[in-house]
Amino acid sequence: MAALRRRQRGQALIIIFLGTLLIGSAMSGGSGLFHTGRQVPELRERANVVIQDETRREAVGTMLDTIEKELKSYAGDRAALEKDAFAAFDNHAATRSDFEILFARADSLNGKARETFLAHRESLRSRINAEEWTALWAPPKTESIEAFKNYGEKQGQ
């Protein structure tokens, strides 16, 4: 019975750890920048269309370059953490404290990423006006039901 509980705790620990890694990576690109589903290249294209003023467009481009560099940096840090985590999983002699160290590293990395990207979001927001900000983050236009019906009729359905 004690062996079963110990194994269940180990499995729960693995699930929690992987969840921490996945949730943390969402901030740095997993679900797009700032949880919008958009990646930096897409935002750069939209900014070039939406922002008419050349100076502000260049400032936004510079900010997006900075964000892209930091995303790559966090990806490297996250990859190193994942490598260490999988090494700990493979090591059957690993203790709870070994995993707590990895949890602390993951929490630190996730917290640092959130703070950094929220600061960049605010900096980006301060560089453009409200209409441009709204247009930059607006969801893509979806086609109406009528467009889908017309498409079906054209296909002979």
Radius of gyration in whole Å, from Cα? 22 Å
SS element count, helices: 6
Q: How do the helices and strands follow one another from N- to C-terminus?
A: HEEHHHHH
In spatial order, strands of the major sheet run 1-2
Number of domains: 1
Number of strands: 2
Largest sheet entry: 2 strands, antiparallel
Distance between the termini: 61 Å
The chain-level structural class is mainly alpha
Estimate the helix proportion, in percent.
over 70%
Beta fraction:
under 5%
List the helices and strands and how they pair.
Layout (H helix, E strand, L loop, with lengths): L1 H26 E2 L2 E2 L6 H11 L3 H37 L5 H32 L2 H8 L7 H10 L3
Antiparallel strand pairs: 1-2
Task: Give the gist of this structure.
The protein is an all-alpha fold.
Q: Can you describe what's shown?
A:
The chain has 157 residues and is an all-alpha fold. The chain has one domain (2-154). The protein is built from six helices and two strands; from the N terminus they run αββααααα. The protein has helices at 2-27, 40-50, 54-90, 96-127, 130-137, 145-154; strands at residues 28-29, 32-33. Mean pLDDT is 77; it is low at 26-30.
Looking at this protein, list some descriptive labels.
6 helices, flat, mainly alpha
